[in-house]
Amino acid sequence: MSRLNINKTYKLYIGGKFPRTESSRYYPITNIKGDLIANMCLASRKDFRNAVVIARKVQESWASTSALNKGQILYRIAEILEGRKEQFIEELVLQGIRRNTAQNEVEISIDRLVYYAGWSDKYQQFFSSVNPVNSAHFNFTNLEPTGVVSIIAPENQGLLGLISVIAPAIVGGNTVIVLASENIPLSAISFAEVLNSSDVPGGVVNILTGKREELLSHMASHMDVNAIIYCGTDQKDIKTISELASNNVKRTIFHKKNDWLNNNNESPYFIEKTQEAKTTWHPVKV
Amino acid sequence: MVQKNKTFKASWSYDPAPESTDHIQIKKRYDLYIDGKFVKPENRKYFETHNPANDEIIAEVALAEKEDVDKAVKAARNAFKSWSKIEPKERGKYIYRIARLIQERSKEFAVIESLDGGKPIRESRDIDIPLAANHFFYYAGWADKLAYAFPNRNPKPLGVVGQIIPWNFPLLMVAWKLAPALATGNTVVLKPAETTPLTALKLAEIIRDSGLPKGVVNIITGAGKTGAEIVNHPDIDKISFTGSTAVGKYIQKAVTGTHKKITLELGGKSANIIFEDAAIDQAVEGIIDAIFFNQGHVCCAGSRLFIQESVADVVIQKLKDRMATLIVGDPLDKNTDIGAINSKRQLKTIENYIKIGLNEGGEIYQTDCELPKKGNWCAPTLFLNLSQSHTIVQEEIFGPVLAIQTFRTIQEVIEKANNTPYGLAAGVWTQKGAKLFHLSQKLKAGVIWGNTFNKFDATSPFGGYKESGFGREGGLHGLKPYVKFE
Question: Nearest CA to CA, how far is A173 from chain B (Å)?
Answer without folding.
Answer: 13
